[in-house]
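ok here's Dihydrofolate reductase, seq below lol
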Amino acid sequence: MPGPVPVFGFKPLTCADMKRKIVYFAAALPPSWSASYRLLRWLIRVLPLGFRSPPALAFVPVTVAGPWPEYRSLLCCSLPTTNSPPPMRKVVLYIATSLDGYIASPDGSVEWLPTPPPGEDYGYADFLANADATLLGRATYEQVVESGEWPYPSFTNYVFSRQPPRQLPHESVRFISTDPAAFVRELREQPGRTIWLIGGSTLASPLLTAGLVDELMLFVVPRLLGAGIPLWRHQDHAQPLHLLRTQTWPDGMTLLHYQLPPETVA
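and the structure came out like this:
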């Protein structure tokens, strides 16, 4: 079967075409118009054009001659594309904190975190199944590395640091020296699943301020540390939160799941 048929400047459908108001689509006609119509309706359903329902089609038959004798004619139709941009990836701050707001002891240790009861993981596996990238500050990254084998080999892991790694990182780890907010803003627009903001608070703070964190899943441990590394840093402005759900476990662990306001462009 020959390649795409270049008739009157029409070309194969591309991602750039999909972003325009009108997309031109061409397909070879079977012997009957009804079969052609069914073919086009099927293609519209399987192609990622973003239609909520199949649109009406306007047909323009074009006779094809020359090097494509097996084509009886060509069908060209204009498809109004959706005006809505594709949904951006979510950034979720999924983190545990003491009741008094600390995410680590003064020395950076997290040994105070409780061991889940047998058969319980506080929803951790389900969360990981929907994510494919992580965001880490340098101190958090070093802590994870020192804890043993790299735990996220199937993810793309972005470590924000202006200094190179002290040792060769895992192949899934990428060191980022650019502005975190600008980088994450672009990352959210790329295809993929949920982006897990692991921490720490030094990285989370500018992303929260920029409105680049979509959800907060805060696991409150029933313990007072009295001192340590705080979860919250200075924020330039107050942010209202919308409570999505709560969950508690028999050992006192409590999940507070919030939605944050979206980024606003001045």
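fwiw DSSP finds six helices and 13 strands in the chain. kinda neat tbh
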